[in-house]
Specification:
Strand content: 15-25%
Number of strands: 7
Low-confidence stretches: none
Largest sheet: 4 strands, mixed
Distance between the termini: 45 Å
Amino acid sequence: MMIGEYSRGGCSRGETKAADHDMGCHEKYTPFGLVNEDTGALHLTFGSSAKTSDFIVDCLYDWWERQSPEQRERITLVQIKADNGPESNGRRTQFLNRMVAFADHIGKPVQLLYFPPYHSKYNPVERCWGILEQHWNGTLLVDARTMLEWAKSMTWKGLNPVVEMSRQVYDKGISLSKAAMKNIEARLQRNPELPKWDILIQPAVSV
């Protein structure tokens, strides 16, 4: 998400002038979204660092902490539908490592379901991004505050999203050794017919 006086398609509201092409953006934010298909609740995070496995899973932790005790109690399975991006696919060692720890932290099973290549448009959260693009189309997102306020004012299923900013700096390229990954892989229940696309993680049993 580029911050600056960009017209976003060559149009701007009113008579405000805007750049119709990239003049060298110095401030960018990485968006990440979670949408609850049952309730329509949308959680958006804009990160100032790289989109890494750690950024994605930290967003999941933030989402979980925002759930009320009653909501957490009702949840029996956290099912995550995701695209097959390099930061979160079914072979990304650091992502799987963090997801196992997440399942242990929340004490709930987590199921990772992946859309095949070129099918991410069927992911419900992609429709949320489309609504956001329409909502601020023509707006000059001149700073982070403007970006956040516009994101907060959009609606999805009649609800305003929870919007957060992450200033955490993330390192790229973190991966586990083969030896360390053996322990993580032992925690993964891969669907034998779709081993890379359907993964169930059971939380560790407390003794």
